[in-house]
Amino acid sequence: MPEDRDWEAYKVPPTRTPVSERITSVPNPVTFLQTVFNYVVDAPVTFVREWIERQQAKNKFYYYHQKFRRVPDLSECLEGDYLCFFEAEAQWRRDRMVDQEIVEIVRERLGACKQREGPNQFQNCAKEMEQLAQVTKAYQDRYGDLGVHGNARTCLMKQKHRMMEERKAQANASQ
């Protein structure tokens, strides 16, 4: 290899490529369109949104606990009042779902107590076991044997029959 290198034959590329600047008398249409969009569309929408947020901040409304008004029971509905029947049925379904959740929460508490106490669960979780027994008995008394297709009318009839049996038992016990 020869010692004398020809640097002109193998030029090194420039480190920075210069950017060509366009200097014209015509403004850039993209900048013009952005400015028009900001003033015509974005500014009014932003103003209206901020105004609505200020109004909502004045009176907060929390959605996480919906409270339904209590409707008359099925036994309080007049004959032929189908709207009252429908509302009573919806109220009964909500009550049943609440009662199911109560049973589930008490069951979870008992499971957590058993997990926490280990071998001493019978001694230290007696209160939770008693509470679960009471809650499941109350649920079974009200909704047991209704099945999946149970409704407010069959539940009311079941309670009526249970009350009649209790009265018969009291009458037989007093004689």
Automatic annotation (TrEMBL):
Keywords: Electron transport, Membrane, Mitochondrion, Mitochondrion inner membrane, Respiratory chain, Transport. It holds the Pfam family NDUFB10. One of its GO terms (cellular component) is mitochondrial inner membrane. InterPro entries: NADH_UbQ_OxRdtase_su10, NDUFB10. It is a peripheral membrane protein. The keyword Membrane applies. Its main location: mitochondrion. It is found in: Mitochondrion inner membrane. Belongs to the complex I NDUFB10 subunit family. This is NADH dehydrogenase [ubiquinone] 1 beta subcomplex subunit 10. Accessory subunit that is involved in the functional assembly of the mitochondrial respiratory chain complex I. Complex I has an NADH dehydrogenase activity with ubiquinone as an immediate electron acceptor and mediates the transfer of electrons from NADH to the respiratory chain.
